[in-house]
Amino acid sequence: MDQDKAAEEKATDEKATGDKAAVDQTTPEATATEPRKPKQPKGEKGDKGGKGGKGGKGGKAPAPEPEPEGPPAEPAPRARLLDFYEQRVRAKLQQQFGFKNVHQIPRLLKIVLNVGMGDAVKNPKGLDAAALELGAITGQHPVVTRAKKSIANFNLREGQPIGCAVTLRGGRMYEFLDRFITVAVPRMRDFRGLPTKSFDGRGNYTLGIKEQMIFPEIDYDKVERIHGMDITFVTSAGRDDSALALLRELGMPFRGETPVAAA
After folding, report:
1. What letter does residue 226 receive in the DSSP assignment?
2. Which is the most buried residue in 39, 87, 197, 257, by most CB within 10 A?
3. DSSP assignments along 20-67, one per residue
4. Cβ(162)–Cβ(146) under 8 Å?
């Protein structure tokens, strides 16, 4: 038994010695064939920045901005009626009234469109529909008007919504006036001209419209209720005669007169 045990231990020692010699023979060759990787300085390992990990101190690189699709948007063209006013109407008014200063020549300041809904308290959806229609007509989001004081006879309380309004200025104002004169006014029922007695004595002209259907932006199939609106043309004239001359030269078709055609 002792001889078998000694022979077994001797065979185990010879096997371990052979494995160690094999490892010693292969290690130099592997070291010679595989080149050592150069050490990278701190801050250059991969794409990680210096201290703090990725991109410096914990910051990530900004994402590239998406490229706009399609051609760039072109600026809106200048209003045709505005060019007509500056090229022809101003000189004609200055000659007609003898203005010595160009700032005395009357001009259009703003156009206000107001829609009143008396039953807006009971029918809020009607007010929402009127606001959408007014926005489609003018191209501008309307403002909801509210009651300034309470009136018991009308079951009205202060602050309740009673209508909507839009104020147009600049190029959008002249664009609306051009469409109103050339498209909307001829579509009025039994139209015989606009009245000339609707001035307030300070050069402002107010016109009442019975139906919003005269504007081509309104879709007949989507109209829930027919309502009117008030349109006020505010000028810098200060007098009714010069304001009337201004609106006449801009092409407003007054009753009993031949309207001026804007070139």
Report:
1. -
2. 257
3. HHHHHHHHHHHHHHSPPPPPPPTT-STTB-STTSBTSSSPPPPPPPPP
4. yes
Burial class (CB within 10 angstroms; exposed 0-12, middle 13-18, buried 19+) of 8: exposed
Q: Report residue 255: phi and psi, to 5°.
A: -70, 130
Query: Taking residues 162-183, what's their average pLDDT?
Result: 91
Is the separation of the CB atoms in 141 and 109 below 8 Å? Answer: no
CB-CB contact of 227 with 233 (8 Å): no
Q: What residue has token string 């229609």?
A: 133
Average pLDDT over residues 16-32: 49
Q: What is the pLDDT of residue 205?
A: 93
C-alpha 117 chain-centroid distance? 27
Q: What is the mean pLDDT of the chain?
A: 77
Spatial distance between the Cα atoms of 242 and 250, rounded to a whole number of angstroms:
12
Give the integer Cα–Cα distance in Å for 109 and 90. 14
Q: Which residues, 6 or more positions from 19, have their beta carbon under 8 angstroms from its beta carbon?
A: none
Kindly give, in sequence order, each residue whose CB lies less than 8 Å from that of residue 106, ignoring residues fewer than 6 positions away. 93, 203, 235, 236, 237, 238, 242, 243, 245, 246
